[in-house]
Amino acid sequence: MTVLEKKNETSSARSALMQRIGAALLILLILGAAVYRAIKPAQHQNINKSALQGTPSLPPQTALQRYGFYLTQCAAQCGIHFVHQAPKLDPRLNNVMPDVASMGASVTAVDYNHSGWPSIFVTNSAEGSQCALYRNNGNGTFTNVTSQVGLQNLNAPGTGVCMGAVWGDYDNSGYPSLLVYKWGQCMLFHNDGGSHFTNVTASAGLPQHANINSAMWFDFNGDGKLDLLLNGYYPSHVNLMHLANTRMMPASFEFANNGGRKYLLENMGGGRFQDVTRQMGINSHAWTLACLAVPGADPRYPDIFLCNDYGESQYYKNEQGKKFVETAQHTLYWDPTGPGSLSGMNASFGDPFNQGKLSIYVSNISVGGELMQGNILWTPKRGASESNMQYQASGDQIKQGGWSFGAQFADFANTGNQDLALTNGFYSGDPNRSYWYDFGKIDGANYNIISDASTWPAFRNRSLAGYERKRLWLGDGEGDFTNVAQMVGFTDRYDGRSVAVADLFNNGCMDILEAAQRGPLLLYRTTAAPNNKWVEFNLQGVRSNRDAIGATLTLYFSGKVQQQVVASACGFCAQNDHRLHFGLGEAPSITRAVIRWPSGITQTLLPSQIHINAVNNIKEPQ
Amino acid sequence: MAQSLTAPAGDPPARRLHIDQRYYAPILVSLILLVGQISFRFLTSPMGTVLGILASIGMEILLSLLFTRKMPNVASAYVSGISVGILVQSTAVWPYMLCSAIAILSKYLIRVENRHIWNPSNLGIVTLLLLAPRYVSTLGAQAGNSFFAMIVIWTVGSIIIYRLKRFHICFTYVIFFLMYAAMRAAILGHYVSHESFAQEAAPLSGPMYQLFVFFMITDPKTTVNSWRGQVLVAFLVATAENLMRIYGTLASPPDGTLGNIVATHAPYFALTLMGPAANLIEIAQKRKARKTQAAAAA
Question: Can you give the pTM of this predicted structure?
Answer without folding.
Answer: 0.92
